[in-house]
Write a structure and sequence with these properties.
Blueprint lengths: L7 H9 L9 E4 L2 E7 L9 E7 L5 E5 L5 E8 L2 E10 L4 E9 L5 E9 L9 E5 L2 E6 L2 E6 L5 E2 L9 E4 L5 E4 L4 E4 L5 E5 L17 E7 L2 E6 L4 E5 L5 E6 L4 E9 L2 E8 L9 E6 L4 E6 L2
Antiparallel strand pairs: 1-2, 2-3, 3-4, 5-6, 6-7, 7-8, 9-10, 10-11, 11-12, 13-14, 14-15, 15-16, 17-18, 18-19, 19-20, 21-22, 22-23, 23-24
Length: 295
């Protein structure tokens, strides 16, 4: 059975009754990098935040949710940042979400008020077509949602999709279990990658032999692969390269290109009641740099 986008917070909160870092993503916005976490890192209430960093500064929270059991997912269009803020409502065992619009200075306004989120919007990736319309992945398809309406299909792609990444040039990355496609916004395929996972893996996190996140730039695909606990890339000729191999219990989560650099986000999944300690590094041909390592 497919486990919807492996929402770490959902798995851990309901299956293990402990905390984990939130569902979210890693995004490059001009000279800045933003990503999802909780604030503070060991917050037992699981108040989601968006962290921000640029070269020469220390990572800091850009915005922190006022709600426990919350998540943030981010999408950037030029220097405008859109956030989907989601919270769990224990009283009726549902999720609610709203959409915020703001900037890299931390000023945000609510443009969609709270609504019941039956589709886990943003968890599998999303983009804003306008302030009034969202495109998002909700396994197994890509949907579009107008404010106050119900979702409709966005692409008739013909394959089950579990994650989507909207690239700055307007192209789209679509991820299945072990395949990935680069398409335009009509679903026309430019490139396809197959056999992204290996058949025989030893004790993958939560038993999931899957690709967790992807990014693409200049002919190269970058992947966070749970099954082998590694980050790897595929060049334009189809050659694979391990960018970073992790040891148990470190687990790869998110990836992003920043020019020639590869941004790699991982954390330790231990399930001992503590929030996993994050590890964000930058890898290039010249050097490896630590951006945010808290353990």
């Amino acid at each position: 059975m497919y486990l919807r986008a492996i929402s770490l917070f959902t798995i851990v909160m309901f299956a293990f009754k402990v905390q984990a870092h939130p569902t979210g993503n890693l995004t490059v916005v001009d000279d800045y990098v933003i990503w999802s976490y909780v604030n503070p890192v060991q917050d037992e209430g699981h108040h989601a935040c968006i962290m921000i960093w640029k070269e020469g500064t220390e990572p800091r929270p850009l915005i922190t949710s006022k709600f426990p059991a919350s998540d943030f997912m981010a999408y950037a269009k030029n220097r405008t940042v859109y956030l989907i803020e989601r919270k769990y409502v224990e009283e009726n065992d549902t999720f609610e979400a709203r959409v915020l619009k703001g900037s890299l200075d931390g000023e945000f306004e609510e443009i969609w008020p709270w609504f019941r989120d039956e589709w886990r919007i943003g968890e599998g990736g999303f983009a804003m077509l306008s302030d009034d319309e969202i495109v998002f992945c909700s396994y197994p398809e890509i949907l579009r949602l107008k404010k106050g309406k119900t979702p409709k299909p966005f692409l008739e792609f013909g394959h089950e999709v579990k994650r989507v990444r909207f690239l700055n040039d307007g192209d789209i990355l679509l991820l299945a279990d072990d395949r990935c496609w680069l398409t335009d916004n009509q679903g026309n395929v430019f490139r396809e990658w197959k056999n992204l996972t290996e058949e025989n893996v030893d004790e993958p996190p939560l038993g999931r032999n899957q690709i967790f996140d992807i990014d693409y730039s200049d002919g190269k695909l970058l992947l966070a692969y749970w099954g082998k606990r590694c980050f790897y890339s595929i060049d334009e000729n189809g050659n694979k390269e391990i960018v970073r191999q992790l040891d148990t219990p470190n687990t790869p989560h998110w990836v992003a290109f920043r020019g020639d650099e590869k941004l790699l986000f991982a954390s330790k999944l231990i399930f001992d009641g503590s929030t996993p300690r994050p590890r964000l590094i930058s890898v290039s041909d010249k050097e490896t740099k630590a951006i945010w390592i808290t353990d």
